Amino acid sequence: MDIVGCSRQTTAVTQISTTSPCSSTSGDPRLIALDWGTTSARAYLLDDTGRILRTGPAGRGILTVTERATSAEDHCAAFEEEFERMCGSWLDEHPEMPVLASGMVGSNQGWVDVPYQRLPKNLTSLADALVEVPSQRGRVHIVPGLLDDGELPQVMRGEETQILGILERTAAVDGGDGPTERVIVLPGTHTKWVRVQGVDVVDFLTSMTGEIYGLLTQHSILAHLASQPEAPDLGAFDRGVQTSLETGPEGGILASLFTARTLPLTGRMPAEQVNDYISGLMIGAEVASCVASWLSTGFDTPSAQVLLCGEPELCRRYQRTLQQFDVDALVVAGDVVTHGLWRIALSAGLLEHQLKGKA
């Protein structure tokens, strides 16, 4: 999916590489880790160090799994069937293998509705709130999401596991020498900005930048004067960022967006630059708002403590926009979800039988 216009470019970024887990040919299987979201699912077989031994076939997201279910029984059976398709061969070989899942599979539209955990939340204690799913294939546990139950509530499912994986890879979980306060940004369809103190999530907000971008560039009047470029145009993106920052509160993003129509209409912008320009307008407005509210007042977070994690080229766009505010964010690369799931499984004691068996 092309989120905010960056699916086709490869650009170097300043990043922290997650050196593990990676595909491995050694080690014994210990855990099946499931990253099960709204539109897709992925299963991983992890060894006794948390490294990926095998990756299962691409699975269906929860909306597709349940689209034909007409009863509670059909609903559960549909998830059992998809789980079997993704993991059945592994469970044939290892019938007692524990399974840990995170994401929208624990929502009210998922396999079971796992209650949210309220902020502030120590992420290592997520292990104490797992919910076990009745399954014909043994023990399946699901990680809860997080709830900021303020006047305007915020929720997340799946990102909490990503964040723990990020902290695991940057040595925060075990009290490493890194900073104790961080802002973690997870760009995507619904971008998350998360305040973390140690391993405690203390605040977060959600920006629908990616979803609104898709609607604007596919279904709005702005789409009629745009054409798909052969490659992303970061010059057009930067122009959008600058326009967004220069207009500021004078009409805001809703006024700025109309220039994505008037500029090509008057011959001042080629049609193939429009989508990247819109991307810059929207990310520029989002970053400006979050920098003003999170990085300027009320939270002592130097720029080196701002981390980005997500699709690499989308992170690159956020990174270059943050640089406009002298914030040098770092990109955490790699599969952080499996790191988070492995850590939770260890803390929950799901691996005790497996690891004792090895000893």
Polypeptide structure, described:
- This protein is α/β, with parallel strands linked by helices and 359 residues long.
- The chain folds into 2 domains: 164 residues, 2-keto-3-deoxy-galactonokinase, substrate binding domain (Nucleotidyltransferase, domain 5); 123 residues, 2-Layer Sandwich (Nucleotidyltransferase, domain 5), CATH 3.30.420.
- It is 36% helix and 20% strand.
- The protein has 11 helices and 17 strands.
- The strands form 3 sheets. Strands 1-17-16-13-14-15-8 form a 7-stranded mixed sheet, with helices on both faces. Strands 2, 3, 4, 5, 6, 9 and 10 form a 7-stranded mixed sheet that branches. The protein has a 3-stranded mixed sheet with strand order 7-11-12, with no helix packed on it.
- The longest helix is centred in the first third of the chain and has 22 residues.
- It starts with 14 loop residues before the first strand and ends with a helix.
- About 4% of the residues have low confidence.
CATH topology of the largest domain: Nucleotidyltransferase, domain 5
Mean pLDDT: 89
Separate helix tally: 11
Name the CATH class of the largest domain.
Alpha Beta
Class by helix and strand content? alpha/beta
In terms of quaternary structure, the protein is: single chain
Q: Based on the structure given, which CATH architecture of the largest domain is correct? A: 2-Layer Sandwich
